[in-house]
Design a protein that fits this description.
Largest sheet: 12 strands, antiparallel, barrel
Number of helices: 1
Order of helices and strands: HEEEEEEEEEEEE
Helix content: under 10%
Strand order of the largest sheet: 1-2-3-4-5-6-7-8-9-10-11-12
Shape: globular
Number of domains: 1
Radius of gyration: 19 Å
Structural class: mainly beta
Number of strands: 12
Strand content: over 45%
Distance between the termini: 44 Å
């Protein structure tokens, strides 16, 4: 299945190119820019000690098999690089849900506060001459107030454990990155808040982007999302593959806007295994618009 090979294939391709990468950099150490140049996929850069920033991230989703469905999750993030190789952030969330005549979901039309998170990231591997890869690890505990699909009140407690890898393919021009994320969660059943449900999700993504000029990057991204009815990935209920273009515009040295739009191109739900897409656990399309400001 596609998800088993996506991350491995991208790593193998980049590893096979690593001698060329070292030569392309002219013997120096080519770097990957620290901005969100890859769409949803995050780079491994954590900045320099003392760097601070604010980001407004808007992740949208729309489209089910029947009815009307739209959701927008907004994240307000305040971050700082607290030491060499260490980055921290605190975030608060808002959300908007609009569902009408969607099987399995109550009709809803609401905007509300949706919880808090704290994230800490550590750069565990730096690039060096002849070694183009950099790797960071991150953990983001989160408290949520709304069910992620239904938009109904539901307290949840979870954490996202993240692996970020990136490398320059052509120095100062072409870049690659991949992410691997596992997010277990314990949440109230929105239809009966006296009951608690344990679920989890995974994300495997890979992206490439080209630096058109000092202000503009454009590329493409592939993401595989999987949903599980357990914390330890042993009860898979659905998978969805998204593909689309990405763009980053550096408005100034301190301000950047990242955007991507990605339709679901393949998927499978355990509830409807004969259908070509998973529209039970995921949506027809997802998009992101993120504004980042450095201080």
């Amino acid at each position: 299945m596609w998800r088993r090979g996506l991350f491995t294939l991208s790593v193998v391709v980049i590893v096979s190119m690593s001698p060329a990468l070292a030569a392309e950099s002219g013997g120096g150490i080519a770097q990957v820019p620290g901005d969100d140049i890859f769409g949803f996929t995050s780079p491994s850069d954590v900045g320099n000690p003392g760097d601070s920033g604010f980001a407004n991230e808007n992740d949208g989703r729309f489209g089910k098999r029947d009815g009307t469905y739209r959701a927008l999750n907004t994240k307000y993030e305040f971050s700082r690089t607290v030491a060499e190789g260490w980055w921290m952030a605190g975030s608060l969330f808002g959300a908007y849900y609009r569902a009408a005549s969607v099987p399995g979901l109550d009709d809803v039309n609401r905007a509300d506060f949706d919880g808090l998170s704290f994230e800490i990231e550590h750069r565990v591997l730096d690039r060096s001459a002849g070694q183009p890869f950099a790797v960071s690890l991150s953990v983001e505990p989160r408290w949520g107030r709304l069910d992620g699909a239904a938009g109904m009140r539901s307290n949840s407690y979870g954490a996202a454990l993240k692996l970020f890898v990136d490398a320059p393919i052509v120095a100062d021009k072409l870049y690659w990155a991949a992410n691997l994320i596992w997010a277990p969660q314990r949440a109230e059943d929105p239809s009966d808040t006296s009951q608690w449900l344990t679920t989890s999700s995974t994300l495997i993504s890979t992206a490439v982007t080209y630096q058109i000029n000092a202000q503009l990057f454009a590329g493409g991204e592939v993401r595989d999302l999987s949903a599980f009815n357990s914390a330890w990935l042993n009860t898979n209920v659905g998978n969805a593959l998204y593909l689309g273009p990405t763009v980053l515009w550096k408005i100034s040295e301190k301000v950047a806007l990242n955007a991507t739009f990605q339709p679901q191109v393949a998927g499978r739900s355990s509830a409807n295994p004969g259908l070509s897409l998973d529209l039970d656990n995921f949506e027809r399309a997802q998009f992101r618009a993120k504004l980042a400001i450095g201080f």
